[in-house]
Design brief:
Length: 88
């Protein structure tokens, strides 16, 4: 389970996460349908070091029902790891 690490004024926390998906338009569309916060990067490997045949996806828990979203993403056969993203 991803743990929240970013404080907000209301005391709630959110975090960004990243994962790799196959480099296909249909997989990107499926992920963006599941997660409205998802941003797909075609040329960035991210911390997970997505390879040339993969796209990096970055999402955020600052959304309604984020646990349901994360569960749906984790159930996708092509998502093998979801990791917290740290922006520098």
């Amino acid at each position: 389970m991803l743990m929240a690490s970013r404080a907000q004024r209301n005391g709630k926390r959110s975090l960004s996460y990243e994962f790799c998906i196959p480099a296909h338009v249909n997989t990107a569309r499926q992920v963006m349908y599941i997660d409205p916060t998802a941003i797909v990067y075609k040329e960035s490997p991210g911390r997970l070091q997505c390879n040339e045949e993969q796209y990096l996806v970055v999402g955020n828990t600052h959304q309604p029902n984020y646990l349901v979203t994360l569960k749906k993403l984790a159930e996708l056969i092509y998502v093998t790891q979801i990791q917290e993203t740290f922006f520098e």
